[in-house]
What we know:
Blueprint: H1 2-14, H2 20-32, H3 45-59, H4 64-68, E1 70-73, E2 76-79, H5 92-102, E3 111-115, H6 121-129, E4 134-139, H7 142-154, E5 161-165, E6 176-181, H8 196-199, H9 215-223, E7 228-237, H10 243-252, E8 255-262, E9 268-275
Parallel strand pairs: 3-4, 3-6, 4-5, 6-7
Antiparallel strand pairs: 1-2, 7-9, 8-9
Amino acid sequence: MREARRRAVPILRAAGIAAAGLEARLLLEGSVGTRALDPERALDAAAAATFAGYLQRRAAGEPVWRILGEREFWGLTFRLSPATLEPRPDSETIVEAALAQLGARRGENLSLLDLGTGTGCLLVALLSECPQARGLGVDLSEEACRTAAGNAMLNGVAARASFRKGSWAEGLAGAFDLIVSNPPYIPTAEIATLSTEVREHDPLLALDGGADGLGPYRIFARSLPALLAPGGFIVFEIGAGQKNDVVAIMAAGGLELRGSRHDLGGHERALIFAPA
């Protein structure tokens, strides 16, 4: 296996992949189905063929986690589908902000709502940390809802999670203690400038936030205040430089900024809102 990895690294480097060594190892692990690689062991024919196919796909620009079909988020495993955004470490900031805001309430019988749930990573991560909570994930894609339901089962929270196809909060009723969302926030004109990995492999539905990237937030400002329980709050992910605009939009809906959290790169990534 050491030799297989050694030969793979220059192939990936030639394709412009900076972390060629790491990705070669990840793809090799995926090919043999284990992280416990024996460097001295030779690949069997089936694993060698799988590995060669993985390398070809990665060199063509397909992200490594798409090839492997799953990615870790919040220490949990989430399976991907073409209809779901690939969970990214920066989005863990939403979970961190929500848990910090909940504080001691994490042990209560909370009602959670995740809009644009995708893989279900936000809702499943929160349910894993809030053992008495129940949650609803909503997504415009039926395929995404199926993927999220599978991930809830995979991570042991299926009994407390439900998923439904829908457009944001349309048709919802009830009172939620926490609403989270990582909505599409990239302006339409900027989609073409994204990396190949994102532009050609993440679903457009999860990327395109309209002409200025703020379309979903305007919908949230109109629809979410009525869905909050007393003491409830909202946590959104935002793009770089969008804070002031999002705060103004939420203020028009009667919501005020209660805090924010920075991602690994030092950018304000998660904003917390509650009724003014």
